[in-house]
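Give me the fold.
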Amino acid sequence: MSFKPTGVMPALVTPFTDDAKRIDEGRLRKLVNYVIAKGATGVVPCGTTGEFQNLSFEERKSVVEIVIDEVKERVPVIAGTGCSSTDLTIEMTRHAKEAGAQAALIVTPYYHKPTNRGIYEHYRSVAEAVDIPIIPYNIPQVTGVTLPWQIVEDLVDIPNIVAVKDSSGELRGILAILEKTRPRLSVLCGHDEVVLPALAAGCSGAILASGNLIVDIWMQVYEAVNKGDLKRAQELQLKVQKISRIIAKSGSVGVKAGLNMMGVPVGPVRLPLSIGGELSYEEMEELRIDLEKIGKIERKVVTVEVVPGKPIQERFAAIGITPQTIKDFNLRFGEALAGEEPEVAHIDLMVGGKAGPVGEAFAKAKASPTPGHEPLVAILEPNLTVKPLTLIVPTVTIKSMRQASMIYGPAQTAVAKAVIDSVSDGFLPKDAADDLILIANVFVHPAAVDRRRVYINNYKAMRHSIRKAMEGRPNIDDLLENKERARHPFRYTP
């Protein structure tokens, strides 16, 4: 067959209604148009990112039909049709062909974990039963089944097997497939963290979960590699590497969270997937920050009134909940946790005006320190105190010089850097730096040993807690939505 997929093709999420009970056709159509407008060379519905395992067969068929109808032949549609059963895969693949898909993406049969012989016969049977270009799909970290290059080498002799998608992230396997099958087979990268090396090695393109969010950037990487401009491609890959890492770990949960932040509503994921699980709240904050950095979340002017009658305009990220005017600086509170034990960081933050209760608490803490919890004013270096004035109060009683060095060394440095970066980024108003007071209760585990991780985690936690304080997060709706499924990380959970 002549169909050879190239370029960058988003593995589309499946938009749901807000209760996740039904497919939201309107949102799905808007998503299709969004990624095509951003440069997608194809679209892939009902793959892993599309939560195909959480869809009924009728829902899967409906998604494929809607996408094909909305695409209107502008780009190829590669429909995910894989099932654990060969017969069901044939049924879904026939439907994809009849609906007008250009190709079928078929994941390796899973759950029963077939042998290599079974895998080969599965693909051979589907290919013989349905005359449509077929793309075997290797994602062993999800299926528990590896599609080895030896089987791919055999499959290439079947006429309508035209490509293979490898989402393993294992470059050795990709190189072996390229060695044995090029140019007869298009090899497609499916792992967001290794796009550049895979393309540079000879892959024809990529099918990516993060393509929903940043297909335009991935197309720039693809074009740079084709032009031989590896320096430019490297710069772009590194620019989105953290986003790629978060998405590779969280899949559709992270993609949907990112799209919703960007103002491309796609609704929630379906259980058992969940925010706070596959995507931690720390990772969600990091995703937001990096989407802002690359301009995917637009900034808007927000008025800040620290002092009544003295409005200050700052540029905040438009995340959907940021109020047009941020006021009530009598007391604002933020909280954040970052990292894992023993270097886990936890910040309880109070923000307020000098003349209010936060200013009073600051003066009292400095004048009458509690033994073992002696507060310290945050500094970038000696004689360079940060503004807004920030007080660090150890949460854990300090009983040794090693503990003290962790709190007053890397943790203190991290808090200070997070404060001044928040001013630089506009999340603490520069013009009110002399009017505000911050008090940060800082938790550093007594068993912490890695000073760099202590620094990184406290920096993240402080940045996140500042954002939450200024934006008033979480709001009551967030709490009501999460009250039943919330799980404290230090709570015993069977």
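The first strand starts at residue 7 and ends at 10.
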